[in-house]
Amino acid sequence: MRTFILITLFLLSFEMLTAQHVQQSSSPNPLEILLQSNPALKNTIANKDSLRIQIVYTQIDRNKRNKPSFTEYNYNLNNNTYFYPASTVKMPIALLALEKLNELKIKGLTKASTMITDSSATAQDYVYTQPNSADSRPTIENYIKQIFLVSDNDAYNRLYEFLGQEYIQKKLSAKGYSDAIIRHRLQISRTLEQNATTNPVKLYDTSGALVYEQPLQKSNAQYPLLEANLGKGFMSRGKLVNEPFSFATKNRVYLQDLHHILQSVLFPEQFKKEQRFNLTKQDYGFVQKWMSAFPKESDFPNYDSTHYWDAYCKFLYYGSEKGTKPSNFRIFNKVGDAYGFLIDVTYVADLANNIEFMLSAVISCNQDGIYNDDHYDYETIGYPFMKNLGQAVYQYELSRKRKNTPDLSKLDLHKK
């Protein structure tokens, strides 16, 4: 009887393990080996704690039917080590905007509907036109493209206002990201109350008829004050304040959560229904296309390649490299950089060599410990680290033996 019980418990444990979309590996961590053996990374990694480095790496293997399985490795991952998520928060906001449209189920309401943002409270902006769209109409579709192509702050702010704090908090928590905090606009300074108050929004169909109206919203969402006082000083109104800079009321999303959010968009079938974003097949294709596109591949919005080069928002693997990049090499990602933090959350697909993997990393580039002074070490520490890390993992993946060659042909989303 005891043997039967032990066998039953073993089988149940095995089923629970294999049911997960990510399997934590107990084998030697290839990240540890790569980081310690690569001269371009070794010196940076020696200061991993002071640089607040965190890394998540996922190996992807496919069976004969091309179904993926995942093995995840972490390096120096610690949710108690705060980093400012910067523009990476735009990724879940873009996904939730599409989810909200699908939930509203209103005839004529789509991501291409005209979205008018009004103003009815202090420090609110209004938006009636979008000069860089094909017909000057502001739309959720155009905002999402701007977010993934060039990480546009204004586009994020408009979608943040369309959603509101409570919707964001509720939806992310329901998907398993209960510690995620997205509570403010970006690039512009607003009080806690102003960020909790979001603009009236109206959406019109292609005939110009009003199909959805959302009044000003005042959020009752409750957030913890983050215990994150960093550095030794900060600039305020042109003067240096000699005390740590407080991130107590800033956004927070853990690196592993961002990694899994991206993973759920690329491999939704590997996640439970309640963990996915409520997107249509067309939504998935739309998001995947624009998060992997080069700015030059967009007609509207249109971007000048001298200011928005191919790898403009592709830190891992390319760093701050400029110039044209091979179209067979695609990075589906979302980056962030602010307050000296540099973050990239990526899925890399080499369509020529049938290589794929996921890699996410964060590093703090603020050696003098002063915030808000615009003197950060992105060029000397951050970008080189991201480039060297991405290329080291890519070279490892090139040599890694796979039982089955993946079919990545569905990822060729930019055929002319």
Key features?
416 residues, alpha+beta, Beta-lactamase, six-stranded mixed β-sheet, three-stranded antiparallel β-sheet, 12 helices, globular
Structural commentary:
With 416 residues, this protein is an alpha+beta fold. It has a single domain, classed as 3-Layer(aba) Sandwich (Beta-lactamase). It has twelve helices and 16 strands. It has helices at 2-18, 30-37, 39-45, 90-104, 140-150, 153-163, 165-174, 192-196, 255-266, 281-291, 315-318, 378-399; strands at residues 23-24, 54-62, 68-75, 114-117, 197-198, 201-204, 210-214, 217-218, 229-230, 233-236, 239-241, 245-246, 329-338, 341-350, 355-364, 370-371. The chain has a six-stranded mixed β-sheet with strand order 1-3-2-15-14-13, sandwiched between helices. Helix 4 runs antiparallel to helix 5 (140-150). The longest helix has 22 residues, at 378-399.
Please sum up the structure shown.
This protein is α+β, with helices and mostly antiparallel strands and 416 residues long.
Q: Main beta sheet: strand number and arrangement? A: 6 strands, mixed
* Backbone structural class: alpha+beta
N- to C-terminal separation? 65 Å
Strand order of the largest sheet: 1-3-2-15-14-13
Number of domains: 1
Taking all Cα atoms into account, the compactness measure Rg is 22 Å
Task: State the fourth-level CATH superfamily.
Answer: DD-peptidase/beta-lactamase superfamily
Q: Low-confidence parts, pLDDT < 50 over ≥5 residues?
A: 1-20
Q: Supply the CATH architecture.
A: 3-Layer(aba) Sandwich
Number of discrete helical segments: 12
Question: How many beta-strand segments?
Answer: 16
Please indicate the percent range of residues in DSSP E strands (runs of 2 or more): 15-25%
